Amino acid sequence: MRIGVVGAGRIGAHHAETLASLGGVEELVIADTDPHRAADVAADVAARVRARTAPSPEAVFDGGADAIVIAATTAAHPALIARAARAGLPAFCEKPVALDIPGTLRALREVDAAGTLLQLGFQRRFDAGFLAARTALRAGRLGRVHTIRAVTSDPAPPPAAFLARSGGLIRDCLVHDFDAVRWLTGREVTEVYARGATGGASAAVFEEAGDVDTAAVLLTLDDGTLVTATATRCNGAGYDVRMELSGELDQWIVGLDARTPATSAEPAGPPPPARPWTGFLERFAPAYRAELAAFVRAAHGEAPNPCPGREGLHALLVAEACETSRRENRPVRVAAAPPA
Prior knowledge:
Blueprint: E1 2-6, H1 10-20, E2 27-31, H2 35-45, E3 50-53, H3 57-60, E4 67-70, H4 77-86, E5 91-94, H5 101-114, E6 118-121, H6 128-138, E7 145-153, H7 160-166, H8 169-185, E8 189-197, H9 203-208, E9 214-221, E10 226-232, E11 240-247, E12 251-254, H10 280-283, H11 285-299, H12 310-328, E13 332-333
Parallel strand pairs: 1-2, 1-4, 2-3, 4-5, 5-6, 7-10
Antiparallel strand pairs: 7-11, 8-9, 8-13, 9-10, 11-12
């Protein structure tokens, strides 16, 4: 299989390295708005797979690709998704489909009209801990789940240029938690209440971007389950993603291991980690590999799509409701997804 990779930044380079190690991938065609960056990524993977560059992202579609991996900037996602659909190519795209609902719907309609495959990059669905928790929950091992607590914490704020185009902390970070909650429980979020805060040395940068460095959200699911989800850009202890599922029979915690960046206050508690997680690429490396392996199988027609693009619409609708709630300081009902 020849796979076109559009976008050779941090996540695009990581995906190219992963694809180069997967069976069934024979060639990568890499493109970026910066041709030198694309050439560097192609050179890095050339020892493991045939790799070449395309002169532009558009040229990838004319180079005989069998499938497309989209890792470009978010603003480019809708057009690239639509281009892949019109070319009849299966596509994997990093979340989100688009930063707003209208753009998301337009891209999804292109995919639906073409009848092509679009897999969205919610890598937590492929993480061993999240998978185990989902299996336990669906098997009834926790009994009735009454409370879920989710944590997403970055070790340091991203560059100001990224903040300006990220869509904000809720759309960029917490959207992963919204998707994970829906996927784990099989339930929909009906109402949200969100608050945000900013402080410290980076406050001015966040305020200029119209964003916050910390957010807390209360979600109500359609069966009454309560979910709290928090996110911050300022967790100096390290990169932390956890989820606690509390039920009448048991409580399961995803993301609690020897590298979780947390210090116990108990005298007999575990010591702080010697090597805390430093970022999402390290923490979720096996999940990213499993995610792209699943895409290759789906693109070959050997397995169903594990994360259709419409899943991104559902998560974005929750994020949009949270942004409204944060701005207006009130509970907000989540809009129903338009029919496919």
